[in-house]
């Protein structure tokens, strides 16, 4: 009996992330160096791991409340106040999620209805569109490639004029995956000044906020808190991807609705991970500083190497990615380029097309790897760029 035709038809419209597909496709190549996944190469700080051990010893092995433990919500609101001058009530305006991924899903499934439209600046992380599609809404891409991947107020205005009342939300992701581009205070305020004129939700995914290199990160929630569903977490700032701790911050009336969807998706985040999160947020408030210093050095190295090979790169000022345009004269199909590179030089980087059609002709490199690995990786890419012209 074949029941596959009885699935939700929306599932036919989505697929496993191309990032994951490509990573698995090249994993069996002998000696492969993978600069593919967006995961810190650092280990979780020892004091955070100690907190988890203590939680296990003290039998914190039961459900927490749906919104999360009181102490982790207090720690999260304290952290975000100290770091970004944002004020949220721990009892009603923050929700602990199973990573930022679940935060995105819970938020989108809470607000979207069939026929709604969601604005997405492109290129963009591919984790948003599938959830929008499952909700029977429509992603509307705003192409930023002509402006060094920077979204402008004028671009938003143009999209709103074209799509009008059908727009339910806009998703912002900064510092950006895949480009590493972020926004200064003036740019964030200018975007907020446009968005406050429209009755739309602003889902701001700021998971890389602690990895901003040149200026202090500025959250759009500072300017339009009533519209903003702010998403953050500990995966990137504290090298805690596997702990699965994320946060949604927002006005009480929004959190009250989102928690309903969150409850039926996951019930609650891991209690042991939540106890570790308290330590990370309070005692480890500046744990990201050491990592950020190292990432900055790696960024400079990889940026210099890639530009010397002829790639055009918008210099990133956050996250840990280089997004590079394949030089003229080389294969412009990014998937073919990356497969050939992997097969001939055993170095894996992500095809730009994984981040949307606007990103075709680009590649993404994660420099979340030690310097020895990065040096060898750059040598292999350099060798490939020479040999591919022969």
Automatic annotation (TrEMBL):
Question: Among the record's GO biological process terms, what is one?
Answer: amino acid metabolic process
Homology family: Belongs to the class-I pyridoxal-phosphate-dependent aminotransferase family.
Query: Which residue ranges does the record assign to the Aminotransferase class I/classII large domain?
Result: 32-381
Cofactor(s) it depends on: pyridoxal 5'-phosphate
Pfam families named in the record: Aminotran_1_2
Give UniProt keywords alphabetically. Answer: Aminotransferase, Pyridoxal phosphate, Transferase
What SUPFAM superfamilies does this protein map onto? PLP-dependent transferases (SSF53383)
- What EC numbers are recorded for this enzyme? 2.6.1.-
Q: Which NCBIfam families match?
A: PRK07309.1 (NF005588)
- Extract the PROSITE patterns matched here: AA_TRANSFER_CLASS_1
InterPro entries named in the record: Aminotransferase_I/II_large, AspAT/PAT-like, NHTrfase_class1_PyrdxlP-BS, PyrdxlP-dep_Trfase, PyrdxlP-dep_Trfase_major, PyrdxlP-dep_Trfase_small
- Molecular function as annotated in GO: pyridoxal phosphate binding; transaminase activity
Which domain of life does this protein belong to? Bacteria
Species name: Enterococcus ureilyticus
Transmembrane found in the keyword field? no
Coiled-coil zones: none
Q: What is this protein called?
A: Aminotransferase
Q: What class of enzyme is it?
A: transferase
């Amino acid at each position: 009996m074949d029941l596959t035709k009885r699935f939700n038809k929306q599932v036919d419209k989505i697929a496993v992330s191309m990032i994951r597909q490509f990573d698995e496709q090249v994993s069996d190549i002998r000696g492969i160096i993978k600069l593919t996944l967006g995961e810190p190469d650092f280990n979780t700080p020892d004091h955070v791991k100690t907190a988890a051990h203590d939680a296990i010893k003290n039998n914190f092995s039961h459900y927490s409340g749906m919104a999360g433990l009181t102490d982790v919500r207090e720690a999260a609101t304290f952290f975000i106040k100290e770091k970004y001058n944002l004020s949220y009530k721990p009892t009603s305006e923050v929700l602990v999620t199973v990573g930022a991924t679940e935060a995105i899903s819970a938020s989108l499934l809470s607000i979207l209805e069939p026929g709604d439209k969601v604005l997405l600046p492109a290129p963009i992380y591919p984790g948003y569109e599938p959830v929008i599609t499952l909700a029977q809404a429509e992603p509307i891409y705003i192409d930023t490639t002509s402006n060094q991947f920077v979204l402008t107020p004028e671009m938003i205005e143009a999209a709103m004029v074209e799509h009008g009342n059908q727009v339910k939300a806009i998703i912002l992701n900064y510092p950006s995956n895949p480009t590493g581009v972020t926004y200064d205070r003036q740019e964030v305020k200018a975007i907020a000044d446009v968005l406050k004129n429209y009755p739309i939700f602003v889902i701001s995914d700021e998971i890389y906020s602690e990895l901003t290199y040149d200026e202090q990160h500025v959250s759009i929630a500072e300017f339009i808190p009533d519209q903003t569903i702010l998403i953050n977490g500990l995966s990137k700032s504290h090298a805690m991807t596997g702990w699965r701790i994320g946060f949604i911050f927002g006005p009480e009336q929004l959190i009250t609705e989102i928690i309903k969807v969150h409850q039926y998706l996951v019930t609650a985040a891991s209690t042991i991970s939540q106890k570790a999160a308290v330590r990370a947020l309070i005692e480890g408030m500046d744990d990201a500083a050491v990592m950020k210093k190292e990432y900055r050095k790696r960024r400079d190295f990889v940026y210099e190497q890639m530009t010397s090979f002829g790639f055009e790169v918008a210099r990133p000022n956050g996250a840990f990615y280089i997004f590079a345009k394949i030089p003229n004269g080389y294969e412009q199909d990014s998937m073919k380029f990356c497969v050939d590179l992997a097969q001939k030089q055993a170095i894996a980087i992500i095809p730009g097309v994984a981040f949307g059609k606007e990103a075709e002709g680009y590649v993404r490199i994660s420099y979340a790897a030690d310097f020895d690995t990065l040096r060898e990786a750059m040598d292999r890419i350099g060798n490939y760029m020479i040999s591919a012209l022969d």
